[in-house]
Amino acid sequence: MYFTGNSLGLQPKGVKEAFADECDDWATYGVEGHFLARKPWYSYHERLTAGAAKLVGAKENEVVMMNQLTVNLNLLLVSFYRPSGKRRKILFEAKPFPSDQYAFASQAQLNGLNPDDVLVELLPRDGELTLRKDDIVKAIRDLGDELALVCFGGVNYFTGQLFDMKEITSVAHEVGAMCGFDLAHAAGNVPLALHEWNVDFACWCTYKYLNSGPGSVGGVFVHERHATNRDLFRLAGWWGHNKETRFQMGPAFDPIPTAESWSMSNAPVFNMIAHEISLGIFSEVGMQTLREKSLQLTAYLDFVLNEVMQSTGQKLTRITPEDPTQRGCQLSVIVEGYDRKLVNKLYEQGVVVDWREPNVIRLAPVPLYNSFEDIYKLGKVLEQIFKR
Ligand SMILES: Cc1ncc(COP(=O)(O)O)c(C=O)c1O
Question: Best of 6, 68, 69, 182 to mutate for ligand 1, by most ligand atoms within 8 A of CB?
């Protein structure tokens, strides 16, 4: 009973064979594999573009798969966090993934600013566990012309709260700020429409809901109004250079007028193999279908946790909002009176969940491979543990 698809997704069928094929091509062709491999390595990343664009609701010229998440966030911040005059603040949600906060702070420093002066973490109201949309909107408007960037997790990793990305983007733009999202917990979990929402930039990883294996390739979205703007500063490398002239090896960078121009290095083929297979599954099933099942699974998990509470008297406090439009599949639950050993007890019973200090378990029923029966059995195991 695997409830940690929000951390590392399970292996899709066909991955092992696809790795073996790539190893064979490498052994057969050596360097010529860049062009002669069955899936030529030279353009391997392009195989992922259509599927990734569909997944996040983007045009194909707005998406590129490259590097990993924090690297990509930093690269995007170099382009989209351009503090000037009094407009220098970065607003983000309470308890963002720490890596993001480190990136924000380092970008402030890169611009000669003190992170303490520009980083603004928006906290929930006293006594509340998640953010209210009205408070987010108010915070953006209050910061007004001091705000350079709003950068939220689409779904917060800790609380599981899904934010209204369309509204946040629109209000950020109203005050003249850029708006971007870390979609680590949103991509493959909830339907996205980044182009339509007018989001400036986004990045995500593919090893969680996207089941593409540990350290698999990251994803980047740059809205086409920026992607086609060759004057917008981006850190440069040869893989972002005009494909027609790349191998003339000239000295001047000529950016491809798409999101691809943010990519600097040649494709990490072995980090992309599983992702191609995974994207095929997502394209075949569709995010809407997955979301429909996901809503039912998570509602059932909520119900089962309530039942466990009733039958055992164990206090379980759901941090994640009750409103299904404000959450993905994950529920984060405070388990009073228990420590990390709870995870071991569950593991002994064949249940995999994860733990966040001081006393939170995160449970993610994933529609591609979790069943209602898994959730029912989880409830029984929890009952046994709490009754003792
Ligand atoms: C929300 C979020 N942001 C960033 C990261 C960091 O990812 P990476 O190690 O791929 O940079 C994670 C990893 O779990 C995450 O959950």
Answer: 69
